[in-house]
Write a structure and sequence with these properties.
Length: 357
């Protein structure tokens, strides 16, 4: 008997903790029969916490974790032949194996796609992503446990829909969890639940319906070092849009008088730090730095100072998209590992197109 199993027996009682038979080389599993609102069964790894996860320094207390699914009372999980029920076992094994073999870590909000084709998890579980979360329904029952000198935490596995995944990517896991809680969604698996974002996210989707239309106008806001070819920059961005789609580029630079000695391509504009007169004109709505005065979508590919933020805020833009840049005027803050401006915008266009479908 493992230390984890004995500790859980001490907490819940021996009659509520059952070992599940697994194949040689697989992660051992436990079944916990618990009662909250109703009776539930928790399928839990039994030994993943023997692996010390290389978590970031700020999460140093959460190096040791176990994974678990929370099953409703109507699930006949013992029936290993039923595809509506048995999919949880290969998934919990896959997740446990991956984190150890890749020498990586898991934490609250981490997500995994069902596969390359994003098919449903089972014939009845139509969600196509899994998200790890701190316990919600089982917050008290699955509170951290002390084993020796280790604090062991539980991460529950929650199936989520594509639109919930999109929302999580743009708004963050904290806001998604809030939406789920508001709709009564937690870690308890539910074959019949609908997306927790149906109403409000659909309203947003409708407002983005023009993303694939040829009359959609785009503004790209970026920094310029004063030496890169402006024509080359424009050509790199141009390849991301349809031939007839309108896009303009606004560049901020710390170079004084950058317009002298440079040929600036059409629909490309440069604002230097000493262009103070422009800020006043923008505030009074007497002047705009671009040809268009209204844009459907603006991409902020960098971070900006206060004066540059004021330029962006003063312009008339329906949707402002950033990449890890939190500001009150940003509508969609995408989280991505892409570094180049072109990769970021390509990623954002794909995300917005998916939301608009």
């Amino acid at each position: 008997m493992t230390e984890l199993q004995q500790t859980l027996i001490n907490r819940f009682g021996e009659h509520r903790v059952l070992e599940i038979q697994t194949l040689e080389g697989e992660m051992p599993l436990l079944a916990l029969d618990l009662e909250v609102r109703s009776q539930v069964t928790v399928i839990c790894t039994n030994g993943l916490s023997n692996y010390e996860m290389p978590v970031p320094e700020k999460m140093s207390e959460r190096k040791f974790n176990e994974l678990c699914f929370c099953l409703p009372s109507y699930w006949e999980w013992e029936n290993m032949e039923d595809p509506r029920m048995n999919w949880i076992f290969p998934w919990i094994q896959k997740l446990a194996k991956h984190v150890v073999e890749k020498n990586t870590w898991y934490g609250h909000g981490h997500t995994f796609a069902s596969g390359p084709d994003l098919g449903p998890l089972s014939p009845t579980m139509l969600q196509n992503h899994l998200m790890l979360s701190e316990p919600m329904l089982l917050e008290e029952q699955l509170r951290p446990i002390k084993i020796g000198n280790k604090n062991v935490y539980f991460l529950t596995i929650i199936p989520i829909f594509s639109d919930e995944m999109d929302f999580k990517q743009s708004k963050g896991s904290y806001k998604l969890i809030q939406k789920m809680r508001d709709k009564g969604v937690d870690e308890l698996l539910d074959d019949f639940r609908k997306t927790s974002l149906r109403s409000k996210w659909r309203i947003f989707s409708l407002s983005c319906m023009s993303i694939n239309r040829l009359d959609t106008s785009f503004l790209i806001v970026s920094h310029w070092n004063g030496s890169d070819s402006l024509l080359k920059i424009k050509e790199q961005f141009k390849n991301l849009f349809e031939d007839k789609q309108h896009f303009e580029i606004l560049l901020f630079t710390h170079i004084k008088r950058p317009k002298e000695g440079f040929e600036i391509p059409s629909r490309m504009y440069i604002i230097a730090k000493n262009d103070f007169n422009l800020f006043g004109k923008l505030k009074s709505k007497k002047s705009y730095p671009t040809e268009y005065t209204h844009f459907d979508v603006c991409f902020l590919v960098d971070e900006y100072d206060k004066a540059q933020d004021n330029v962006i805020k003063a312009m008339k833009i329906k949707h402002v998209v950033s990449f890890g840049y939190e500001r009150s005027f940003v509508n969609i803050n995408l989280q991505t590992s892409y570094v180049s401006s072109q990769e970021k915008i390509k990623f954002a266009l794909a995300m917005l197109s998916k939301i608009s479908d």
